[in-house]
TrEMBL record:
SUPFAM superfamilies linked to this entry: Winged helix' DNA-binding domain
One Pfam family, short name: MarR_2
Source species: Hoeflea prorocentri
Residue ranges of every copy of the HTH marR-type domain listed in the record: 13-145
One annotated GO molecular function: DNA-binding transcription factor activity
Keywords carried by this UniProt record: DNA-binding, Transcription, Transcription regulation
SMART domains: HTH_MARR
The keyword Transcription regulation appears for this protein: yes
Protein's UniProt name: MarR family transcriptional regulator
Amino acid sequence: MNKNQALPWDNPRFKNWIAVARASQMIHQKLARALAPLDIKVPHLDILANLYRFEGISQQDLAHKLLVGRSNISMLLPQIEKRGLIERRKDDTDKRVLRLYLTDKGRDITLRALAIELELIEHSMSTTNTDECNFVGEVMQRMIRQMEEWEDGQQT
């Protein structure tokens, strides 16, 4: 950036990007606080919600869905497994693959946590009508697709 270039905060896209990032960060912080009484963290909820939705998912597929490395999942799983919320079972056809399942306790905690998350989403999105809400979602989906096409180090 040189002296003749506009400063980033003068760019409407930059200002709006900061607003999106701040909203995301604020929602994450509020969700973390709201989940504290259940003694789970946001990454734990991400795992539990996916196990609720995709019962028997492999660790590798779970990592892919969460956009994290398998090592991240491997570090988090023992924490929630130790609490009796999940169990790992060997795949019936490929013994090298571990499948993940919620326990009854895990299912209960997941449903309670999802209710908390939904309440937060409803509150934060209550400033929009249905059309605006759908528009925000569509724009975010387009941004996701654009970033998926982006190659590391690419300049526009």
